[in-house]
Amino acid sequence: MNNINIATQKYLKEKGYHQFSLKAVLFDMDGVLYDSMPNHAVSWMNVMQSHGFKMTEEEAYMHEGRTGDDTINILSKREGKNLKPEERRMIYQEKTNAFNSCPVVLPMKGSAELLQKVTGCGLFAMLVTGSGQPSLLDQLNNDFPNVFIRERMVTSFDVKKGKPHPEPYLTALEKGRLKPNEAIVIENAPLGVTAAQAAGLFTIAVNTGPLPDSILADAGANFLLPSIETLRDEWDHIFDCINTIKNTNTTQRR
Fold first, then answer.
1. What is the separation of C-alpha 151 from the centre of its chain, rounded to a whole number of angstroms?
2. Which of 66, 97, 233, 240 could be disulfide-bonded to 70 (CB atoms 3.0-4.6 Å)?
3. pTM of the model as a whole
4. How far apart, in whole angstroms, are the C-alpha atoms of residue 225 and residue 205?
5. Which residue from 175, 165, 225, 224 is spatially nearest to 196, judged by alpha carbons?
6. pLDDT digits (tens, 9 = 90+) for 137-168
């Protein structure tokens, strides 16, 4: 899992590409750019329990990447309840309020420097998140100036089906006018990895939460690292490998 050369070659063979033509890096937000998942987990647990649903902080990490509506719908159906759309919206607004009352969320350590390296390589960064938290979306330009533009963002407002469905990443490819071998994904959540894999994208999983590595590997991550700081430190080597390794057993897909 942790040999980027092997991971890259395996991806190219499986997908039938001759090589990468890297143009963009697609970033998840919570747990990748921001150390926001602890706040999300506590907010989800407290609000859902207040409405009589069983939910733990760990389960919140397992649902990470879904839209809020999907998460509430899954939990309600699991317990034999059928909430109306307006009821789900009310609960999600409560969760949003709870999240906003938590301590201020800071960027993940190493994320700003990683973005500088990515853009310094001539690539553009895109945001692909299941979140609809206005507080974090507004914070992006302050913490990462001149990196993300709205036209290249995919949030819960832009899709009908959230992760693990591939729609968020397929929408990002469409917005960025990209082919799958022209982008890679940085994810920390198993559902996000599943979505990226379903969209045919090479996926680097960064385990910034409490879940075991095996869950990210089982979701299909092509490459696994323990932190954003590690990814930042190894970025130059990873970029070089992705750019140079070729699949000599096939011709370029069209």
1. 18
2. 66
3. 0.88
4. 6
5. 165
6. 778 989 999 999 989 999 888 998 989 999 99
